[in-house]
Amino acid sequence: EAGVAQSPRYKIIEKRQSVAFWCNPISGHATLYWYQQILGQGPKLLIQFQNNGVVDDSQLPKDRFSAERLKGVDSTLKIQPAKLEDSAVYLCASSLPGGLAGVETQYFGPGTRLLVL
Amino acid sequence: GIQVEQSPPDLILQEGANSTLRCNFSDSVNNLQWFHQNPWGQLINLFYIPSGTKQNGRLSATTVATERYSLLYISSSQTTDSGVYFCAVVCPAGGTSYGKLTFGQGTILTVHP
Questions:
Q1: In this predicted model, what pLDDT tens digit does every residue of A75-117 receive, in sequence order?
Q2: B7 touches chain A (CB under 8 A)
Q3: B32 vs B96: CA distance, rounded Å
Q4: Residue A54 at interface with chain B, using a CB cutoff of 8 Å
Q5: A106 touching B, CB under 8 A?
Q6: Mind listing the pLDDT tens digit for each residue in A6-30?
Q7: So where are chain B's domains?
Q8: Which fold, B4-112?
């Protein structure tokens, strides 16, 4: 079974530029998550989708970050404009939809390493 | 929100040694997962263990939900076990942490040959 796919694997941009990351979840997984992992810390949830609807985006900096999952499968996370503090690894995860939120095992992709100069 | 604390923060072992990593959490949970993040950044699922004990090869985990802690045991460690081990939990209904997988700060494990 194929895992969660992400691209690109690495990205270097200058501050105030824009960047986009792509994620393809495990086939059949209706729930998709984007996490931000700053060096030396655990991942932090940015946004959670159930099919193409947003379940939780309370920790997404909406002035510069946006995400979409138009057809309920692939997802794109965008940052515009980027700041130095956005340098991090951006992880995508997916899971089956559980009867209770969050009870299903989450599977992570390899991540995109972003460096903002 | 829920607090997740892992100990020790760093651990250095010789190949073949055993170790125990601990995860304490501040509230009841309905999901607890242990992950290994390898040196390339990939998060690999080790266990889904909101309660009880599970074993997988040289690894085993125990969660005592009533006392709000989980332990990850690594026996006969190998250099490939090096990396960061994360504990992550999800709270049941209510509160700002509901439904979110909240990670601890991780334990950095280095296994020398």
A1: 999 999 999 999 999 999 998 876 555 567 888 999 999 999 9
A2: no
A3: 17
A4: no
A5: yes
A6: 999 999 999 999 999 999 999 989 8
A7: 4-112
A8: Immunoglobulin-like (2.60.40)
pLDDT category at B77 given cuts 50, 70, 90 is very high
Per-residue pLDDT for B59 more than 70?
yes
Nearest-neighbour CA in chain A from B57: distance (Å): 20
> Average model confidence (pLDDT) for chain B?
91
Fold of A5-116: Immunoglobulin-like (2.60.40)
Please indicate whether, in this complex, the C-beta atoms of B104 and A42 are within 8 angstroms of each other. Answer: yes
Task: Give the nearest partner residue to A56 out of B35, B92, B99, using CB atoms.
Answer: B99
Give phi and psi for B79, each to the nearest 5: -60, -30
Cross-strand bridge partners of residue A113? A10, A89
Whether residues A91 and B43 touch (CB distance < 8 A) is answered with yes
Instruction: Return the residue matching tokens 């250095």.
Output: B12
* Distances, alpha carbon B13 to alpha carbons A10, B18, B96, B113, in Å: 31, 8, 38, 9
Chain B residues whose beta carbon lies within 8 Å of the beta carbon of residue A56: 99-100
Q: Do A41 and B96 touch, CB atoms closer than 8 A?
A: no
Question: What residues does each domain of chain A span?
Answer: 5-116
Interface probe, candidates A90, A96, A108, chain B, greatest B C-beta count within 10 A: A108
